[in-house]
Write a sequence for this structure.
């Protein structure tokens, strides 16, 4: 079995990647994960202010700032893409079938 | 201070108006760093005053300012170890060879499309355009939008951070997305205009919006909608002086047409004709055509209402909205008789699409008054008064109530 762990918070505490790496709880968690040898891919995301949402309605691509806020919708999948810039990510997002009835939220990876 | 000093000061002021956006746009293109670009542009304008007093005003002030700002950027990046790589890039002044040159007639075009990118919050697009392209200070923008300066500063910082962190490209969008992106740019310019138009002392903002629209036309002469927007703004602006009387709103019908700015009207109509000649109709061109019908009528009674009604039908097709439907209803009332218009207004009321909009009952009241039904008009005016958002509008409605 493969699982996705969605790591959530309200962004009221936003440590830097360095602070996070120095957090003993994070260190223990990370070491445990390494020991199990099971991690396939893990990335931290930039905060929601950097999010962009793409929807396609009646064939028209609608780009809006901010996260995908329709509460009746749930995460149905994810893909990590390498793009030249946000416009390319928007193009890819707009091509996904779910963009026609749901939406695709684009979140930059925090590197 | 001697006369030459005044001349230098005037030359720097003129250069600021004409060149600020271009200097910042070029520096962002070279360094990719928005803050550095703004700082160095600011430095270049500051040293212009001293240098031009000593050496005279250069033949091409824009080139002088860009070079000075670029040298300042090189100095700053040299001092910073991480910037060393960028200095080499700057020194050779190369452009991306893959960039299709026919799409980039001016660096400012890249700047305006990036400022108005739909991934940025709308208020941030407006603020960023006024700051980086038009050169307004954060304090000036905050004042114009009745916002605290710290809030506006925060908005600008966040927007620049998002451009960097989300990877918003610094470019003119390719042709397949150009049309929606251009619409986003025009929406920003029109909002700037309207903000200035609604304020008693908002002339600086309307002038800025008009200037930016002229720039956009120069940069994209083949696109008709920027011309449509410019025409619309000029035609609105021509009536500015007559819109209020002692703080109360004056409707178009009652405005003193002899005080309209006929030079602006002539330019607006000519600009609209150029746009329409392209044969690619758009929402701003239709709105400008409607405005033109109004301002070219010698008096209110000779307004071409059938033509205006037809234009609103076209606008509803291009940009459907209940407000457009309401304006269409008014035009129909004036063209085909009040009952026909009232029937359309009642349809909109029944749809519930404009429930909290004061102009819905105000329009209904006005049509009832014209139809000689004062009791019903009074009730509708009362309803509009409850919803009216500004003092000028409340005063206008109160006046109408008294006249019944």
């Amino acid at each position: 079995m493969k699982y996705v762990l969605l790591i959530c918070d309200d962004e009221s505490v936003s440590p830097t990647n360095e602070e996070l790496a120095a957090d003993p709880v994070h260190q223990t968690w990370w070491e445990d994960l390494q020991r199990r040898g099971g991690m396939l891919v893990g990335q931290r995301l930039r905060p929601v202010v950097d999010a962009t949402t793409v929807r396609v309605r009646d064939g028209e691509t609608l780009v809006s700032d901010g996260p995908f806020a329709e509460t009746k919708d749930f995460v149905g999948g994810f893909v990590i893409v390498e793009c030249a810039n946000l416009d390319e990510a928007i193009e890819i997002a707009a091509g996904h079938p779910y963009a026609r009835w749901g939406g695709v939220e684009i979140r930059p990876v925090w590197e | 201070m001697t006369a030459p000093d005044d001349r230098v000061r005037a030359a720097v002021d003129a250069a600021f108006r004409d060149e600020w956006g271009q200097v910042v746009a070029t520096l962002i293109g070279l360094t990719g760093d928005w803050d550095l670009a703004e700082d160095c542009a600011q430095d270049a304008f500051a040293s212009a005053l001293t240098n031009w007093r000593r050496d005279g005003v250069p033949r091409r002030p824009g080139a002088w300012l860009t070079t000075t700002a670029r040298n300042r950027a090189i100095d700053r990046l040299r001092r910073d170890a991480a910037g060393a790589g960028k200095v080499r890039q700057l020194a050779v002044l190369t452009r991306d060879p893959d960039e299709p040159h026919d799409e980039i007639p001016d660096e400012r075009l890249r700047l305006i499309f990036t400022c108005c990118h739909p991934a940025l919050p709308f208020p941030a697009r407006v603020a960023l355009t006024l700051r980086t392209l038009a050169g307004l200070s954060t304090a000036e923008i905050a004042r114009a939008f009745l916002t605290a300066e710290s809030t506006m500063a925060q908005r600008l910082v966040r927007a620049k951070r998002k451009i960097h962190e989300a990877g918003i490209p610094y470019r003119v969008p390719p042709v397949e997305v150009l049309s929606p992106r251009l619409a986003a740019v025009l929406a920003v310019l029109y909002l700037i205009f309207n903000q200035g138009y609604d304020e008693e002392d908002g002339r600086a903002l309307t002038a800025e919006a008009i200037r930016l629209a002229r720039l956009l036309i120069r940069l994209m002469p083949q696109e008709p909608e920027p011309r449509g927007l410019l025409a619309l703004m000029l035609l609105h602006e021509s009536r500015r002086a007559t819109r209020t009387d002692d703080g109360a709103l004056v409707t178009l019908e009652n405005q003193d047409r002899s005080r309209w700015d006929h030079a602006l009207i002539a330019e607006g109509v000519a600009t609209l004709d150029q746009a329409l000649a392209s044969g690619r109709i758009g929402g701003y061109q239709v709105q400008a055509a409607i405005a033109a019908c109004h301002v070219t009528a010698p008096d209110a009674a000779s307004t071409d209402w059938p033509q205006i009604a037809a234009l609103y039908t076209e606008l509803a097709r291009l940009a459907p909205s209940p407000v457009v439907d309401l304006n269409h209803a008014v035009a129909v009332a004036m063209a085909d008789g009040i009952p026909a218009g009232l029937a359309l207004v009642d349809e909109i009321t029944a749809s519930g699409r404009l429930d909290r909009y004061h102009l819905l009952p105000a329009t209904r009241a006005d049509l009832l008054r014209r139809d000689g039904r004062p009791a019903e008009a009074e009730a509708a005016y009362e309803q509009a008064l409850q919803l009216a958002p500004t003092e000028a509008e409340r005063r206008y409605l109160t006046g109408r109530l008294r006249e019944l």
